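new request in #modeling-help
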Amino acid sequence: METAGPVPSWDEQIHWRLARGEETALAELYDRLAPLVHGLAGRILADQTAAEQLTREVFGQLWEHPESFDPRQGSLRSWLGSLTRRRALDRLRLDRTDDHELRERAGAARAQYVVDSLPHPLRETIALAWFDGRSYRETARQLGITEQAAKQRLRLALQLLATELADEEGES
Amino acid sequence: MTYEDGPAAELRHEAFRSLLGAWALDACPRREAAELAQHLAGCPECAEEATRLRNAAGRLSPDEPLDPAGSLRQQVLDWCLARRPARLPVPRWAAPYATETAKLDALLRDLGPEEWQEVAELPWYGGVQRWRPAEVLGHLTAVDGYLAPGLGLPDPVPGAPVAVPARVPAQSTPGAAAPAPEGPAAGVLARTARLLAVQRGADPGTVRAQWRRQSHALVRSAALRPQGGAVVDFGFARLPLRDAFVDRAFECWVHGDDIARAVDYPYPPPLPRHLRLMVDLAVRMLPVALAAVRPPLTGPGRVLRLVIEGPAAGEWLIPLDGPGTGGPQVAELVLDGLEFCNLVAAHRDPDRIPAGEYGDRTAIRDVLRAAPLLSRP
């Protein structure tokens, strides 16, 4: 190792390996972040084929131009997330989607992105209660946590979501 | 649950507050929701938060985004590699292992806590192992570990690789049909038992991470030294690295499918070009198994033509009388490639598998019955 700094993060290692042309790095990157990229693309574009095409392009962009990502500027996860979102919205604009629809899709994607970024325990709790439609009691049982903990997680997750979304609306 | 009036009012207020998230997500039993609604009518503080959380919940989509289809992975990789070829590509013979481990990992990502407690059945010719998904991963880690030292990686299994007494390890189900393992299975089961002993009580996520770390490291090491000529000693067989990777891909697929059956998830078969490598390896190993059901004759070198149909289509000549294929072809056996692999994995009954059979019935039966002998736990 050339420097005696801290152990490089996963982001830094993958970035270095991508630049070096390691196919295994591309595969590991895909395995970790394809659900995020494909999920966001599908959310915004609401079209399976278009979402797959965009997923190819987003990973292709990073693989062809690894230098376009700078690990010091933020995480690979958020970089790929925002690249996906930007490109998906560009595509909708090309398709002359009207502004209202555009904002709505972007908003849904934003909520999804916030949920994806929640700490894992909160994300899995909200997934059971909301996406699977379970009561907080069943959720607690399924996760092996107390009912009180399940209630707290659901409340905290929604508070975080509300705050993030309010911040964003304040910005735009 | 009933609430009484009185000094407990503050406690009740706190209890209702803690329920607001579940309420906003419609995750409360109806009765609690009704009681909360009453409370909200008289408590502006809770009502304000309830509105805020309901609005946030309203922004959630009704369903989780779909996971990308498994087939997209190869498309994306191909798309990328066509634009910028890899300077360090994955060797052709390591590709099935890279793909199968990724496919299994994608399945594991979706397992909930209850599903990690399901017990998968792993049939092989000597019986059935019954393992939870994390134990299957421990098993895969232990056996993949045979490849590690030759690639300069640490062996994940503690203890020296010694010959082991033939005994049923603690993890196999008591009373199961499995005999005290001997031969090929003994070493594999003993390694598995040693690693499972270390992993006992570990969180499934930790076990999964260890397996995944090793599988990534194996593929990466193979890409960094792509000759594939090194020899891997499995204890019962020595295979060139390139074959060992195909063998491990095969087992990863078969056991991934075992887990998928236990949790009732779909699990697609390998890509055609990967399946073909697996079929080819099994065919090349078949003569060894055949010798066990059919004492080799110093005969005329008769052969059976194996015709594999389906996406992995191809033809192979199988020597029936020991090495050497110079003699007459006495039989032809036609099988689907997936079915053939399932037979080799002892996941099909050789007497019932649908096959086209022409010629010497005995030879055909011997080949069909020999194939499952290649299976291991």
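bot summary: The first helix of chain A runs from residue 10 to 19.
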